[in-house]
Amino acid sequence: MPESVLLRLPDAVPASWPDEGVAAHYGDPYREQRALGSGAGFTDRSNRGVVTVAGPDRLTWLHSLTSQQLDRLNPGESAQALILDPNGHVEHHLALTDDGTTAWIHVEPGMAGSLVSFLESMRFMLRVEVTDVTAEYAVLTVAGADQIVPRAALAAKAAELAEGGTAPAGMWAFEALRIAAHVPRLGVDTDHKTIPHEVGWIETAVHLNKGCYRGQETVARVHNLGHPPRRLVFLNLDGSEDRLPEHGDPVELDGPGPENTVVGWVGSAARHYELGPIGLALVKRTVPVDATLLAGGIAAAQEVVVSPDAGAN
Within 10 Å of residue 28's Cβ, how many Cβ atoms? Predict the structure, then answer.
């Protein structure tokens, strides 16, 4: 995906992984966070993949393939959904809105192609048409709501928003508020083994009483009989450090002894304008909820996002 046209805005600084192609910030990340927090900001997320599914069978078909109840989705209504592998591991996290004739889906950067390939393999004789429209459409998040706009109109839309008092805010600001809201991100706060219960998607992207779909057996087994092996935690990081932990850094129990026990890994980390340095991590379910942790060597107090008792009803 080429660089966003909004990187030409004044003071725009390009983002690095996983958000290459859009702005990290526009000169003042903390001011940008405040704008987003007050509903007076917008974020260019045009590096995300956009896929459309058209045709009269689209919603019943997507309903049969994903974790979400989509067959009753009303025009203009949005939902989150997951596509799982046969063992219940998360392969795709979908943000979806249906306009009455077409389901518009956006996914993590670089994921549209693999999503389209999977959907095409499952078409059979149904009346659906799947298209990767990432080159033609872009995602803008405005006052907390996602909008899919023609890519050719992206600059004009941004100018219109700015004229109305809605300021551009880069991905540093967006990510800081996402982390503070305890919202996980696929491929950043998850790995190839992640199941929905581990990161809290069971509440937002899974319908527990719908019909069969790939990976449902794992969801049902954990929900009714057991607990997930890991859980998402929020990290309040030591503010005296002049660095943040890196993605993938080990999370250890902070205790006496020459070596600390590795109990997980860091997903996201950011500097929040009110909370200071914060992060998300996946740790073993059995880690005590009051234990002090080391995230990439930085002391961190944890807050429960997913309870150790998650699952088993």
Answer: 15
Q: What b-and-e string marks burial along 168-194, b requiring 16 or more CB atoms within 10 Å of the CB?
A: bbbbbbbbbbbbbebbbbbbbbbbeeb
Strand partners, 88: none
Please name the helix (run of DSSP H) or strand (run of DSSP E) that holds residue 163, with its range, or none: helix 154-163
Question: What gap in Å lies between CA 246 and CA 226, rounded to an integer?
Answer: 32
**Distance in angstroms (rounded) separating the CA atoms of residues 117 and 87:** 19
Give the three-state DSSP class for 26. coil
Quickly count: other Cβ atoms within 10 Å of residue 126's Cβ.
14
Residue type, 115: L
pTM over 0.90: yes
How far apart (Å, rounded) are the C-alpha atoms in residues 79 and 97? 7
Tell me the two tokens of residue 225.
């009989």
Radius of gyration of the chain (CA): 20
Segment 239-294, tens digit of pLDDT: 998 999 999 999 999 876 556 799 999 999 999 999 999 999 999 999 999 999 99
Which of 137, 67, 151, 144 lies closest to 102, judged by CA?
A: 137
Interstrand relation of 41-44 and 167-168 (parallel, antiparallel or unpaired):
parallel
Q: What is the pLDDT of residues 147-166, one digit of tens each?
A: 999 999 999 999 999 999 99
Residues 214 and 89: beta-carbon distance below 8 Å: no
Per the CB < 8 A criterion, the answer to whether 142 and 42 are in contact is yes
Number of helices (H) and strands (E), helices first, in the chain? Answer: 8, 17
Burial class, 147, CB count within 10 angstroms (exposed 0-12 / middle 13-18 / buried 19+): middle
Q: How far apart are the C-alpha atoms of 97 and 264, rounded to whole Å?
A: 34
